[in-house]
Design the sequence.
């Protein structure tokens, strides 16, 4: 079963070397999507021969990740895993995700969750955790599925979902909305406990000023997604 | 606001919201762009439910009739949306130009 890691990277010159060397050492297949970085990310990728696609213009997380799904579909991968380019995700958990999704062909997505099991040392701000709880309840309301870590970008999907995401993927803040999409397509979404690291260098692209806009926009997109009728598989 | 007008406002806004949902589901409109129109629909519903607020606001601002105030608000919203659309179109033009340029350069290498 072919599996590939999709690694969106925007201005990650400080982190991308460590992330890719780790994967190369473990023999894990990956593709970095350089989302029009303005720093030296591209040089690091070229100089070390890391496998990558460079977008000629910045598309944002949605467009970058979707490029990875298109690549995965074109190359016939059976599973694709979204993996952060900033070093926050731990590659040791990849096999947990893979084993969980393989258990049942009806599972469309398995999310690496920081909030189930006790392994996670990752701390988030209070308001962020409150926001995540709210989104979790909203998703439960429309899909009857309880997901604890709705914003985790560490997730694996199966071939059917790869096909779907390569055609349609939200451009902004896609993590919670895509959970609803997968369920509406008739597949299950499960979680698997993981722990994540703190960001080593660079800046996160979400700051507290944008949080309110984020919450409103994500909630509305969950509601839109949740209101469509179930399509046939 | 007379009751029949209020009912018309609410029905019209509600149908519009349903239409917006359909457009988004058919992938004809981005969720992000539908937010502006959603905002207008909810404002209309709000105006229909609390018309006295609008009577008060229009008097304070100096309008002779509340309907003039609501029309002006409507024109203001449409102006705002038009400007936003112009900004979006400008951004898209830039991206399209860049795409054409890059593809042309790739073609030169015989791919």
Sequence:
């Amino acid at each position: 079963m072919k599996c590939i890691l999709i690694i969106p990277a925007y201005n990650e010159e400080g982190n991308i070397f460590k992330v890719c060397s780790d994967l190369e050492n473990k023999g894990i297949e990956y593709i970095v999507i350089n989302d029009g970085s303005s720093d030296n990310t591209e040089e690091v990728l070229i100089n070390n021969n890391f496998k990558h696609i460079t977008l000629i213009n910045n598309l944002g997380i949605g467009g970058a990740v979707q490029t990875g799904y298109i690549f995965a579909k074109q190359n016939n991968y059976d599973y694709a895993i979204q993996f952060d380019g900033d070093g926050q995700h731990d590659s040791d958990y990849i096999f947990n995700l893979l084993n969980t999704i393989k258990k049942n062909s009806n599972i469309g997505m398995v999310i690496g969750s920081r909030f189930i099991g006790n392994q996670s040392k990752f701390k988030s701000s209070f308001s962020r955790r409150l926001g995540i709880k709210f989104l979790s309840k909203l998703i439960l309301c429309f899909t009857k599925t309880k997901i604890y870590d709705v914003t985790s970008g560490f997730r694996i999907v199966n071939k059917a979902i790869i096909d779907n995401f390569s055609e349609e993927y939200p451009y902004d803040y896609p993590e919670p909305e895509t959970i609803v999409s997968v369920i509406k397509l008739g597949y299950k979404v499960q979680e698997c406990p993981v722990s994540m690291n703190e960001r080593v260098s660079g800046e996160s692209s979400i700051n507290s000023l944008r949080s309110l806009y984020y919450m409103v926009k994500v909630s509305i997109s969950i509601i839109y997604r949740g209101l469509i009728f179930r399509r046939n598989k | 606001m007379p009751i029949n007008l209020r009912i018309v406002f609410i029905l019209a806004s509600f149908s519009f919201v349903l239409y917006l949902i359909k457009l988004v589901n058919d992938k004809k409109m981005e969720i992000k762009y539908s937010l502006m129109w959603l905002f207008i629909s909810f404002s209309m519903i709000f105006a229909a439910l609390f018309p006295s607020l609008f009577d008060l606001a229009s008097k304070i601002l100096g309008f002779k009739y509340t309907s003039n105030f609501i029309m002006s608000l409507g024109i203001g919203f449409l102006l705002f949306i038009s400007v936003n659309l112009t900004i979006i179109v400008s951004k898209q033009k830039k991206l399209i130009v860049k795409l054409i340029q890059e593809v042309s350069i790739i073609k030169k290498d015989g791919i």
